[in-house]
Amino acid sequence: MEKEIRTRYAPSPTGRLHLGGARTALFNYLYAKNQKGKFILRIEDTDLARNLKEGSENQLNGLNWLGISPDISYQKEDQYGPYLQSKRLDIYQKYIDILLQKKLAYKCYCTKEELEESAKKQKAKGIKAVKYDRKCFYNPIVKKGINPVIRLYVEENQKLIWNDLVRGKIEIPSSSLGDFVILKSDGMPTYNFANVIDDHLMKITDVFRGEEHISNTGKQLYLYKLFNWEPPRFAHLTVIVNNDNKKLSKRDESVVQFIDSYKKLGYLPEAVFNFLSLLGWSPNTEEEIFSKAKLIEIFDVNRFSKSPSQFNYPKLKWTNNYYIKKLSLSKLKEFLIPFIEKKDLIFLKDNLDEILLLFQAQLREGIEIKNLVKIFTIFPNWKNIQYKFNEKEINLIKDFLIESKKIKFTDLNLENLIKRLGIKFDLKGKNLMHPLRLAFTGKEQGPSLIKTIQIYGKEKAKLILERFLKDEIHYR
Ligand code: GLU
């Protein structure tokens, strides 16, 4: 029987689910699903000082919202769990003891000051890659009342080689590693140690993660060798950069950084899923729109991109708009209602369906609906517009007011009225519609004007134009 493919996303719960983390999770998810395997969420919560209380929950909620739900997690364990590292301390200790017993690791009592002193000396000798000087290995003295760290004794003559799915063959000499710490003085394993123990015991077959982990992979491979375990396959994904090709900083506002912010701004999870899938991976086609099922079907680990992936905000909005346009009325309502203010919702309840449908095609972020519906809840504020109406345009509006009182607001009647007035005033196209739109909505642009006027209804349309004509400021 073939080995089951098991991938994992292994965040530290030190922050909210970030774009980069979500992308890592997504690729691991897609591959597991493509291979009919399992996608696992493992929480690496061994950095006690940096853990956030809601960190794990935020990560899991974000994944669930995106539709990247793990098959296995701290909420859904299997026989290889637990999947919270803080619950696995006895497991790590067992392997630490083995290494200590075999004299492959040793206790180190050096203080921060001693380490700094040693580093200084090495630098003075011109050594750039400073390493631990093995003081506690050569002089194994016990300091009472101090908890030691455990260091691995790293042989210097090994080559650590792997075939990275993104970068090809990578080789790290073990001499560059130094005797790195595997257990901290607070009894917690270090990232590199716990990561290897867990990936092995959890039967992880493939590890896709950010390129910042390339240097860690050397240390991890050293441990795999030491235990005589088969390492997983690695892919180190290229960084995500902003429009200026700069690596994302958490404060960069040209990029939506956190998954819960996408939700708050009114992104559909399908859109974010689709967008993220093309951030560092590409299918064998020019297409941009892919359903989840399609992505699962075509996902191919040989198509990770080799160059940094650029976060393109307009493309994200375009993708979101595409998915918003596809929503059925009931889904559209479910999606948009939370963005509309309560008082507006109450006011608009009789026309809500029509109003949402009116704006559906233009929405790039759901939150836009909040202000858009205001054209139906408050009178336009013409003072804010730059445009100066000329006399002809004012007469056009006056006539519209008079004539529209006489007709029923059907599509055809309104169209004909506008056409007639166009002929009368010798105005066409934009020159005809623009003043009318401004008078009715106070806005330069908007959805179908005829539909908008219909939603106002006769009474409100009349009131708006009357008020507009009274407020002469814009055409004097
Ligand atoms: N906890 C690590 C991180 O958040 C996991 C890296 C890995 O996937 O090995 O970066």
Automatic annotation (TrEMBL):
Its EC number is 6.1.1.17. One of its GO terms (biological process) is glutamyl-tRNA aminoacylation. A motif ('KMSKS' region) lies at residues 247-251. It catalyses: tRNA(Glu) + L-glutamate + ATP = L-glutamyl-tRNA(Glu) + AMP + diphosphate. NCBIfam families: gltX_bact (TIGR00464). GO terms for molecular function: ATP binding; glutamate-tRNA ligase activity; tRNA binding; zinc ion binding. Monomer. It holds the Pfam family tRNA-synt_1c. The gene is gltX. The keyword Membrane does not apply. Belongs to the class-I aminoacyl-tRNA synthetase family. Glutamate--tRNA ligase type 1 subfamily. Keywords: Aminoacyl-tRNA synthetase, ATP-binding, Cytoplasm, Ligase, Nucleotide-binding, Protein biosynthesis. SUPFAM superfamilies: An anticodon-binding domain of class I aminoacyl-tRNA synthetases, Nucleotidylyl transferase. The keyword Transmembrane helix does not apply. Its main location: cytoplasm. Residues 340-461 form the Aminoacyl-tRNA synthetase class I anticodon-binding domain. Residues 4-318 form the Glutamyl/glutaminyl-tRNA synthetase class Ib catalytic domain. ATP binds at residue 250. CDD domains: GluRS_core. A motif ('HIGH' region) lies at residues 11-21. This is Glutamate--tRNA ligase. Catalyzes the attachment of glutamate to tRNA(Glu) in a two-step reaction: glutamate is first activated by ATP to form Glu-AMP and then transferred to the acceptor end of tRNA(Glu). One of its GO terms (cellular component) is cytosol.
